[in-house]
Amino acid sequence: MELIENSGYAVYGCPSLSIPLLVSVPHAGRDYPDKVFRSMRLPKESLVRLEDRYADLLLRKVIGFGFPAIVAHRARAWIDLNRAENDIDVEMVRDAIPADYPPPGAKQRGGLGLIPRRLTDEGDIWKGQFDLDDIQGRITSFHQPYHATIADILQQMHKKFGIALLLDVHSMPPIRNVPKGGPPHFVVGDRFGQSSASLFSELLIQQIQLAGFRTALNHPYSGEHILRRHGKPKGNIHALQLEVDRSLYLDSTLREPSILLPSMSALIGNLVRSLSDQALGSATLIAAE
Question: CATH number of the domain that 54 lies in?
């Protein structure tokens, strides 16, 4: 297992690039700079709701196998790696000029832009505004390097194998609105075919179902900025998102790992291996389409 430590994240298994698949975990970070807590209006325990709680532990087998992975340690409350750099709520930022930024999207309007602003049922997270230089510093020191590292690894994979895949792993709260047949345990996202060739989504769904779990495609999560930025299926670089129900590996409070964590980690490892095998077997076919 090779480990490269960077500011706010770690990279595993990349010097050897044994497979054409990179796994990323952007939202499980539990490293909170002191400035986060000093700036808060809410109790600091509230920020757990922003975490994909212990989703990084789902990669134990992946990392143990020596497969490539990038894992964020810096908390999502600091800056959200799954949002575009310009997805800034200008009301949160002192000296920000509205004309310099695009109109807010649905996530930002819900309080979950580049810097999360509010939590449902709890209100605004922060006491006041942030300086624009502060936000730019977070972007240049953490957000940009994280994405540059992903792009570089995917390019190296593409050069070596003729194809590259990114599997972006998240966790979700249990889905309460039960659809016919029961709520999904996993949600696979490919931005409705825009970020990946369909055979990879189909394989992921098939393998999850063979393991005995319910799954859904693109509903209610289709993927956000990471898939939009890095998925280039026409160039044979594909990006998928995988949402895992937290009750599958956390205790009843959804706060701490349960005895089911090892089996979930093994499943993720098997999914990565299956996707990689599919990529190696289909690289020429996809490129010729």
Answer: 3.40.630.40
